[in-house]
Amino acid sequence: MELAGLRCVVTGGAGFLGATLAAALAARGARVTAIDAMLPGTGANRANLDGVDATLIEADLATADLAPLLAGAGAIFHLAAHTSHMGSQADPRRDLAQNADATLRLILAARAAAPAAPVVHASTRQLYGRPRALPVAEDHPVDPPDANAVSKWAAEQYWMLEHKVNRRHVVALRLTNCYGPRLRIADARQTFLGLWIRRVLEGGTFAVWGGEQMRDLAFGEDVAQAFIAALDAPPGVYNLGGAPAVTLGELAAILVRANGGRGSFRVETFPEDRAKIDIGSYIADDRAFRAATGWSPSVALEEGLARTLAWFRPRLAAYV
Amino acid sequence: MELAGLRCVVTGGAGFLGATLAAALAARGARVTAIDAMLPGTGANRANLDGVDATLIEADLATADLAPLLAGAGAIFHLAAHTSHMGSQADPRRDLAQNADATLRLILAARAAAPAAPVVHASTRQLYGRPRALPVAEDHPVDPPDANAVSKWAAEQYWMLEHKVNRRHVVALRLTNCYGPRLRIADARQTFLGLWIRRVLEGGTFAVWGGEQMRDLAFGEDVAQAFIAALDAPPGVYNLGGAPAVTLGELAAILVRANGGRGSFRVETFPEDRAKIDIGSYIADDRAFRAATGWSPSVALEEGLARTLAWFRPRLAAYV
User: Fold this and answer.
1) Total count of domains within chain B
2) Nearest-CA distance from B166 to chain A in Å?
3) Is A211 helix (H, G, I), strand (E, B) or coil?
4) Can you list the pairs that B30-35 forms with residues at least 24 positions away whose Cβ atoms lie under 8 Å?
5) What is the domain range of residue A142?
6) What is the Cα–Cα distance from A164 to A1, expressed in whole angstroms?
7) Where would I find the H helices in A57-131?
8) What single-letter DSSP state applies at residue B51?
């Protein structure tokens, strides 16, 4: 799809992946509108859009009049979401409102204001729950381990109904754990890795829970390219993975190495409340998306971590 | 589970299945509280509880203070729901609020007021979408054909999380099409069969859309016994089917026969808006539930239809 001059709307556009995508779209000549509620505790950060040629509109999908914001959109990327697993268990109604109901509001506005715009929706591997076998393909049963997986699945399926019933071009990407510049690193709310990165940048020690779980981490800029490639993929739901999988213990060691050997970690037992909703190891089978688009990750794990650390080092004050 | 003297809460308790269950529980000596929002357009009808030894509390799960209503409950049966497929497509946010958010409100209240009460949740075969093969077992992929299937799946999964994370005894029954005394027959909002029944009772003609689709209809009193049996089933999600499957064309002929040959029907093409969300044929594989509980349907289809017609005949004014 030709992006030059195309009006692209990115919800969650001040967040980690949203702003990374906004930057990638702007670099391809798109006119980018980033919509973000700028809620505290989320990944939203104005610094994420520093130097990015995008218009930030502060608006909450749960309450704002959305149709005017979508008028003229040539593509819609829906990344705004409540992402905290523990938070969803503590307040599942808020999680449902932010993910499922807000997505419905966006869908209804898009029907009115941008009925032909293709949509790429950020879904999550969380909805598979604890994998029954690895790697996990799209036909793996959906088995939510927490309320967040329920609401995120509902949001994905509402979009897919827009394809099935209303023939809109919709692609949902079920993302693996992502990392990179602009990640929320203040705490572990967005991902454990955010806090790890903060700790090594501050010269401290971080905790690795368990350590044997495997993850196939995806670098943010690669993920952004996948969202763009998805505009030209056949409609449907696709897994999106990342680098070859490593254990969390291995990841911790690579992170310290990427930081020039500075930093240390200790392996701890999983806290009981998190163990209840932990999914164990995850590795995406994303061959369907790669075959449909030709996309593949371009940044290796250690390089991605080094680039992430280098990006944060001069900006740390804006992120902690 | 011993029901005599047990306080049982039935949400949607003035509806078709809720009131049928309330009657069955009361007949077993339970002290029954029926909670119902009595919303227009739903299956709620005060006449459904005529002669049933149950207390009806008019309360909307979306707004009422629920904990006091659940205090002392020995078992909770959650049947309240928005059930209209077309209605969910027209107003998916309302459907989500009534099904998923209201269920979360009930769950949170139950945590506070009745943390040990077992729960039986009314789920639906609708969430499987158009079956990939027949009969449909519980491991069939979930593939919502409409917004109602999304919200109903979310409600089911929120309850299952109460089992997985909080160890509550929860059984969800994915119901096939149900019919029987107390069915909403004013129109086709609850099921096409309701309107068919009204038409033959009034001596008119009814329309059969398509006619080749197969259904394994479950008789309400059998379904009520299944809800009671579910209290003693291992926690989990089970399909619940009914009588041996017939085509809608066959069903129409059986209905006219059950009415003593009075009544007629015509076969019509499926309306386009409904065809988009139609699931085709459905037959439940409910062997898991039968094996777990010993339950099986006791009322044959023609007998069930005859009993339904006989039940409605003197009560028609209260239902049309």
Assistant:
1) 1
2) 9
3) coil
4) B30/B3, B30/B4, B30/B5, B30/B6, B30/B75, B31/B5, B31/B6, B31/B7, B32/B8, B33/B7, B33/B8, B33/B9, B33/B57, B33/B69, B33/B73, B34/B10, B35/B9, B35/B10, B35/B11, B35/B59, B35/B61, B35/B69, B35/B80
5) 7-184+218-242+284-298
6) 22
7) 67-70, 85-90, 92-96, 102-113
8) T
Among A181, A183, A201, smallest CA distance to A260 is for A201
Q: Is residue B320 part of a domain?
A: no
Euclidean distance between CA atoms B159 and B176, whole angstroms: 19
Compute φ and ψ for B312, nearest 5 degrees: -75, -30
* Residue A177 counted as domain residue: yes
Tell me the C-alpha distance between A165 and A244, whole Å: 37
Q: What pTM did the predictor assign?
A: 0.96
In angstroms, the separation between the Cα of residue B79 and the nearest Cα of chain A is 20
The number of residues making up chain B comes to: 320
pLDDT at B17: 98
Q: A19-33, A302-316, B22-36, B270-284: which has the minimum mean pLDDT? A: B270-284
Chosen for mutation from A157, A158, A237, A273 (greatest number of chain B CBs closer than 10 Å) is: A157
Instruction: Count CA atoms within 13 Å of residue B138 on its CB side.
Output: 16
Q: For chain B, list residues with pLDDT below 70.
A: none
Q: What CATH number should be reported for the domain holding residue A96?
A: 3.40.50.720
| Structural domain contains residue A161 | yes
* Angle formed by the axes of helices B147-166 and A147-166, nearest 10°: 170
Average pLDDT over residues A57-64: 98
E strands within chain B? 7-11, 31-36, 54-58, 75-78, 119-124, 170-175, 178-179, 205-209, 214-215, 218-219, 236-240, 246-247, 264-268
Q: Contact A100/B100, CB-based, under 8 Å?
A: yes
Q: Which residues of B fall within a CB distance of 8 Å from A154?
A: 96, 100, 150-151, 153-154
Question: Which of B96, B161, B276 is closest, CB to CB, to A101?
Answer: B96
Residue A267 domain flag: no
Total length of chain A: 320
The verdict on a CB contact (< 8 Å) between A154 and B158 is no
Report angle CA A32, A36, A41 to the nearest 5 degrees. Answer: 140
